[in-house]
Amino acid sequence: MEVSLSWTDERVDLLRRLWEDGQSASKIAAQLGGVTRNAVIGKVHRLGLAGRVKPVAGTPATTRKRSMRESEPEAASVTEIAAEAPEPIAITSHRPAPDFPPVPPAAIVDAVPLAVSQRVTIMDLRESMCRWPMGDPTTPEFRFCGGRSITGLPYCTHHAQIAYQPAAERKRDRRVAGLR
DNA sequence: CCCTGATTCGC
DNA sequence: GCGAATCAGG
Q1: Which residue is nearest to nucleotide B7 (CA to C1')?
Q2: Which Pfam families match (predicted)?
């Protein structure tokens, strides 16, 4: 049967946690899988938990940009008033985020479909590079994927999908290598 | 150029 | 309700 990747309770719940945890929409999308960051943002708004980082009133960033598609010179009202409103929200100090699986299960490490990457040694590994382990870490032949990693995550988009498969989907969802 | 979230609107 | 396209900004 086809598991339609929609906003199930589980996925919405995960979305909530990650968002409130300060994760960016693109990272959340990468971990959810099957959705774009736009989808995530859209959902976040629909859930009513948007406006995470609220700039203090008076900040240039507060300047509301409306009328993108519509050149209608609408009088600013609700939006601006809302922007002026006091912030009851106590800014929860930056949590380094409980972070997720540091390393993928050894099981898949062996089954890694090395194909796209160039593989680098730990010497050449940079912050922006995928840390997906390839080979036996105890041997000098050990390498990392080295592909362009999602900022904030240790893996490239390809390996992130493998490492962060939602438990719900994982059991039968094998679309690992087939995204856009 | 990389990224961020915000908004609109056709579906 | 959903999310691509778009916008605005860092």
Answers
A1: A66
A2: GcrA (PF07750)
Instruction: Find which nucleotide's C1' atom is closest to A60's CA.
Output: C9
Q: What is the residue range of A118's domain?
A: 101-163
> Does A58 score more than 70 pLDDT?
no
Nucleotides of chain C within 7 Å of a protein C-beta?
1-10
Reduce the secondary structure of A80-95 to three states and give it as a string.
HHHHHCCCCCCCCCCC
Within-domain flag for A144: yes
> A4: Cβ under 7 Å from strand C?
no
Residue A149: inside a domain? yes
Task: Examine residue A90 and state whether it is found in any structural domain, yes or no.
Answer: no
Q: What's the average model confidence in pLDDT over A132-141?
A: 81
CB of A49 under 7 A from strand C? no
Domains contained in chain A, number: 1
